[in-house]
What we know:
Layout: H1 4-31, E1 51-52, E2 55-56, E3 61-66, H2 73-77, H3 84-94, E4 108-113, E5 121-127, E6 132-137, E7 143-148, E8 152-161, H4 166-172, H5 178-186, E9 201-211, E10 214-228, E11 231-240, E12 243-247, E13 267-270, E14 273-277, E15 284-287, E16 290-293, E17 299-301, E18 306-314, E19 318-324, E20 329-339, E21 346-347, E22 352-356, E23 366-373, E24 376-377, H6 396-411
Amino acid sequence: MVSNKTKRYFGLGLLVVIVAVIVYVVYDYNTQPPEVTVEPVDTLIVEEPKMEFGFLVDSFDVHKGEIQRNQFLADILLKYHVSYPEIDRLVKTADTIFDVRRMRAGKNYTLFCSKDSLGKALYFIYQPSLVEYIVFDMRDSINVYKGRKEIVLKKKYASGIINSSLYLTLQEQETNPVLSLEMADIYAWTIDFYRIQKGDQFKVAYEEGFVEGESIGIGKIKSALFTHKGRDFYAFYFEQDSIGDYFDEKAQSLRKAFLKMPLKFGRLSSSFSLRRFHPVQKRYKAHLGTDYAAPSGTPILAVGDGTVIESSYKGYNGNYVKIKHNSSYTTQYLHMSKRAVKVGEVVKQGEVIGYVGSTGLATGPHVCFRFWKFGKQVDHCQEDFPPSKPVNEELMEEYEKLMKTMKQKLDSVRI
């Protein structure tokens, strides 16, 4: 039989256990971090405001179009509630910035109009090109100014093996064939592009300009390799004295004393020869010049700086020009349809001095190019002219570093 004293101890112990359990539970609950429920939040995407010509598009009613044939500025603006007096003020204000009579059919324009019920034109933008635009501000005070869109330059490479011509090879590759004209300019002192052969190869690194994703044409050629008759001709663009030019891997300029030919493009029709059968006189005789056939009216270029000492017409020569370059060299250009320079004029290399024709003793349109060295007519194609100014000595380290980088990239391009 359990005594009263035992019952008291048992009851007291039970009470202590119960209190301890309660204290533990309360303490554990208070010390644990509360459970946090995270509600999903929708991601807010904020679109960048659309801008055109420096204007926030959403602030206006925008209308675009093309200038039509025989359409004038007034024809467009009157439809958008711009009055004749306002147009007159606009034209007069624009006079020193842009002559509105020069707006051409097919060119784009944009109108930014008010968003009210009237929808009056506030700005008229005319685009003479993909890059340039003219802003006509027709708000409270008339204002006209020019702007330019941002041009993004992208580095591109092209390469190929020539089967017919450089121009056609690029065209077949869906590369802008204008690149051939740029390359012809670079190598004008080194390679006669009328004599490039089937199997000749090229690699070129160049820039192409883009405006709003649309190509605006070929930019600067940065480096090139043209393999002609098995010989490599490198060209690297480098600036010194704030003037850019092209140099080879030995830092020598590609710009020689004379151009290789007096035309940019055409066809070599007759070489320098001491015994050639004359197509008109029907007999063998010396032909102390080089004939380049080209369409009538093709510009003829001075192959070097000099002074015009003859600009005249003679029976066999037709219209011709003769240029004295220095005490050693003189050149002559025959059978022109028209002469563009007079005796005594100083001409620069590449300047137009006349146009291809068939005057004088000629069977078709061409230019007969003659070259004198120390008073004796020679075959200019066989002359090895010294290069012009090479890379400055103090810039040689900079050039070497740049050239090696460009050459490595160019050599890695596959043909």
